[in-house]
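Kindly review this protein for my students:
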Amino acid sequence: MSVADRLLRFTPRAEQDIRNLLLETRRQWGAEQRTVYRRKLYGAFSVILSNPEIGRSREDLGPAIRSRLAERHVIYYEILPDAILILRVMHIRMHPPSSFDDLMLEDAD
């Protein structure tokens, strides 16, 4: 499958991360800044989708995990044969989990 045919998928946890960070952005800085941040975040997802290898390899977190900085958040993802799976989107001050295995099992349901 070519890179152009890949889909962008999100674990339920990543979807929750995105909702929470956008709600917090709106609460602290207003609706306009939330819109700006959302655009930047989804721009980062688009860059990852078009160039999956751009992220840093995170073998310490799992055999196929990569990460990419997006403003003040780190996007953790996995390259699958047919998709890019966004595992988590975490603030740079947060420590990633020691493993993403539970998220991958969650996504398989």
